[in-house]
Specification:
The protein is mainly beta and 644 residues long. It contains eight helices and 30 strands. Bound molecules: copper (II) ion.
Length: 644
């Protein structure tokens, strides 16, 4: 455990989680807690960046920074949250302990199941279900949603979930095909009591099944021949613990229970040295605001990382299904609410993919030329969060580009509408079944270190030159740029009409042609939130109101909506930190990029949604002398006869 060979950013192992839990349990503060105390999260407390850089840039044998765990515990009896850090070196022991009554940590699966049992067996709920013709309690499923915060006085200070029922006729059926509309229960998760049950009236339960296993398909296609990916000499990457080398790239692969997959210390070997690009990249937060104002849907604003945990929801991946080819897997480990360590086998999948043509030119006069095949390194994980499944995919390319892509799939969130009614805020996907309009916003925290820690961000946009003697044909246009100096001016939205993007530059390192070396953040699909500025979601997840945010690096500024978005009134995270309008020019900076997928559901998204993708790219701009992929060998070495 104290091996000096381990990278300081390696995620906690099962053994380390067990050690940390034992240390917490033996602390006097723990013995003062009630019986219903739960471990909410327990992860590596990453060392300060300077300490990691000193270790990785030091000589072999340089001392590793102290190894620490950070845990959040919830005492349901008192409702108090406990933030604990544990020193894992030497004799493991609690280092700090802080009790807080002003926050709600994310919801554990254990709580959601308790809420389900409570609501399901409440006589008032049974009566309401009977009114809807539902007598078989076995078939009833109660989904406990994060409660949000809508300013209701009787909800203040409580730990809450809003619970809505669905029918699952048999254990393998799709519950979201049968929403029990109009019924909602508000549950106090600490006291395990129902505060309120509201029945907004009976709507017939949509009867059509929404299953998608092979048995329900009339005839499976029988014209698909095997497609096998083989790499007879093995993959081109090497793995040392959690550090991966692939061609010119080096990257550290990490994981935690809140963000899931984390990449660190991404660098590229060039000019005889390893050039840093990204110190750390992770999904800092995500939120799915729904656009239906009705009493059983208005509250649906799941802040999935801070309210549920993207890492907790990571699924074990299987060969030939989630990943295809020559795969390397990383396991992950998280804590269970009862304090036991849980291994998620194959939580992260890594492999190489052929990605079509990398570059090409064929001479038109003689048909001769050069072609190179592109190959990318894929590092990915999948999380099943309630009805939705999200794939988180990082790609490294041979031309120095980095891509992040989220794959959205799973099952739509649904409600019911009376027969013959067309929903105003959704789409009918089956008779009486309403899939509500919604958006998926993601925020990625990018701690870029372009050739060193001190960087700056420039906005680049294109404008037509004014007509006149200098532009006699009216064809002239050019790119303009400006440097952001402080945080508030760096809160920006995308604008495709002026080809707006952002470049992260190192002002002190210049390309041989003069400009500072840089990487460009190339936006992909994006949109803006449609909730009003006064809506709870706009305060509680203010990071969605701007696509770009830039902050100076601070060790504890990690999550775009703050450490505890669950039931928070709003304003925490990015809006809070940036209020000071700190300087960001020529500093160690962090770029936060928000991107939104606008989802007006289609019948084709039912009963399970074909993958939709959204993401962005980081592309070198004046970082390399010229095309860095010139040294990729021609495919003719393996496949004779390409335009030779
Ligand atoms: Cu969606």
């Amino acid at each position: 455990m104290t091996s000096s060979a381990r990278h300081p950013l390696d995620p906690l192992t099962v053994e380390e989680i067990e050690t940390a839990v034992a240390a917490i349990r033996s602390a006097t503060q723990f013995t003062e807690l009630g019986e219903r105390v739960r471990f909410v999260t327990l992860d590596l407390r990453e060392p300060p960046k300077a300490a990691v850089l000193a270790w990785s840039e030091g000589d072999d044998g340089a001392p590793r920074p102290p190894r620490e765990a950070e845990a959040v515990l919830l005492d349901h009896r008192s409702g108090t949250t406990h933030e604990v850090t544990v020193s894992l070196d030497g004799d493991p022991a609690v280092a700090t302990w802080r009790a807080r009554d002003d926050v709600q940590p994310l919801a554990t699966v254990a709580e959601l199941m308790e809420a389900e049992e409570l609501v399901k067996h409440d006589p008032r709920v049974r009566e309401a279900l009977t009114r809807r013709g539902v007598d078989d309690l076995e078939a009833v499923q109660i989904d406990a949603w994060p409660a949000g915060n809508f300013g209701d006085a009787d909800e203040a200070g409580r730990r809450l979930a809003r619970c809505i029922p669905f029918l699952r006729p048999t254990p393998t059926d799709n519950e979201w095909a049968h929403p029990v509309e109009g019924l909602i229960a508000l549950v106090d998760l600490n006291r395990l009591e129902i505060l309120r049950i509201d029945d907004h009236g009976v709507v017939p339960i949509p009867p059509e099944p929404g299953n998608f296993d092979p048995s329900v398909v009339e005839a499976l296609r029988d014209d698909i021949k095997p497609l096998e990916i083989t790499q007879p000499s093995g993959p081109s990457f090497t793995v040392d613990g959690h550090t991966v080398s692939w061609q010119r790239w080096q990257v550290h692969v990490g994981f935690n229970s809140r963000e899931g997959l984390v990449l660190s210390q991404i660098g590229y070997h060039d000019q005889g040295r390893r050039r840093p690009i990204l110190y750390r990249a992770s999904l800092s937060e995500m939120i799915v605001p729904y656009g239906d104002p009705s009493p059983t849907h208005y509250f649906k604003n799941a802040i999935d990382a801070g309210e549920n945990g993207v890492g907790f929801s990571a699924s074990p991946l299987t060969l030939g299904c989630d990943c295809l080819g020559e795969i390397y897997y990383f396991d992950a480990a998280v804590v269970d609410p009862d304090g036991s360590a849980v291994r998620i086998p194959n939580a992260i999948c890594m492999h190489e993919e052929d990605y079509g043509v990398l570059w090409r030119h064929i001479e038109w006069r003689n048909g001769k030329g050069e072609v190179r095949r592109s190959r990318r390194l894929v590092i990915s994980s999948f999380s099943a969060i309630g009805n939705y499944d999200y794939g988180f995919f990082w790609y490294l390319y041979q031309d120095g580009s980095i891509e992040y892509e989220i794959k959205l799939t799973g099952v739509l969130s649904t409600g019911a509408v009376p027969p013959g009614e067309t929903p105003a805020h959704g789409t009918l996907v089956a008779p009486g079944l309403n899939a509500m309009i919604h958006q998926h916003f993601f925020n990625v925290r990018l701690d870029l270190d372009i050739d060193g820690v001190d960087n700056a961000v420039e906005e680049v946009w294109t404008e037509a030159d004014p007509p006149g003697p200098q532009n006699p044909h009216g064809n002239a246009f050019r790119a303009h740029r400006r440097r952001f100096t402080h945080e508030l001016e760096a809160q920006r939205r995308v604008d495709g009409a002026c080809a707006r993007w952002w470049e992260i530059v190192n002002p002190t390192v210049h390309h041989r042609l003069g400009a500072p070396v840089s990487y460009r953040l190339v936006p992909g699909e994006n949109t803006v939130p449609f909730a009003s500025a006064e809506a709870a979601v706009s305060r509680r997840a203010a990071f969605i109101t701007r696509h770009l945010w830039v902050t100076p690096y601070a060790r504890d500024e990690r999550y775009a909506a703050g450490d505890y978005p669950n039931q928070h009134t709003g304003g925490s995270g990015l809006p809070e930190w940036t209020r000071a309008d700190r300087a960001i020019d020529g500093r160690d900076i962090v770029v936060w990029y928000t991107f939104g997928h606008h989802h007006v559901p289609r019948p084709e998204d039912w009963p399970v949604m074909p993958v939709a993708t959204i993401g962005f790219m980081l592309k070198p701009v004046g970082f390399f002398a010229n095309n860095p992929a010139l040294d990729v060998p021609p495919p003719t070495r393996h496949v004779p006869g390409c335009h030779a």
